[in-house]
Write a structure and sequence with these properties.
Elements lengths: L1 H21 L5 E5 L4 E6 L4 E8 L2 E14 L2 E5 L8 E6 L5 E7 L10 E6 L2 E6 L5 E5 L3 E6 L2 E6 L5 E7 L2 H5 L4 E7 L2 E5 L11 E3 L2 H7 L2
Parallel strand pairs: 7-13
Antiparallel strand pairs: 1-2, 1-16, 2-3, 3-4, 4-5, 5-14, 6-13, 7-10, 8-9, 8-11, 11-12, 14-15, 15-16
Amino acid sequence: MKRLTLMVALLTVTIISISLAQQPTIYGTYQDCPFHCRTIKINRDHTFEYRLDGDLYNDERHKGTWKFIDRNKIRATTPPDRSPLQVTEKPGKGADYFSVLVIDHNSIALQGVFVSGDANGTRFSVTTNDIGTARIPKSRQFELSCRDYRGNHRVLDSSAREFVVMLTVEQLTNWEINDTWLIEGNRLYIVAEDGSFDRGYWLDKLSNKASRKVFR
């Protein structure tokens, strides 16, 4: 019995060792810098860090989690930004509608932002015009949608008729990552929804020293 138990234990260790040996070494930092730099760091604790810098980007950083979906293929996702809106309410008289002005952190008006909600059981949805303003029916609350960001505001002042909404840098630059990444050797490929990927485009694995310079 003892010999059988020992043999089972040795077999189990062998199987685990073979499995670990076959597991690809995906952990590390991958980068591509054609005009801007896209850098992805895959951590062993099933988290990742994503950085975009240069050209039109200004050191945008995102964090998320990943899981294996195949031997050398992982699914990476980031949580959506649901931080609260920064809203200034202003009173008004007699108006049967609300005026919503949407600006960025530099007080620049934002065009094309969706403003939606319910008013007396009727759904409404409008977009801000070229001066960043949207006129909506009076309602208890409204929602703003900009890129991947969604935020709600509940009206606090019953006399308010004008609302100035300031979207933060984080809310404006937020975009959700829901990617599949394929790692082959020292290359990381981004896989399309249909499972295809471009063999001519990849991110190269960096040394530990180069990785520390990017994510210092």
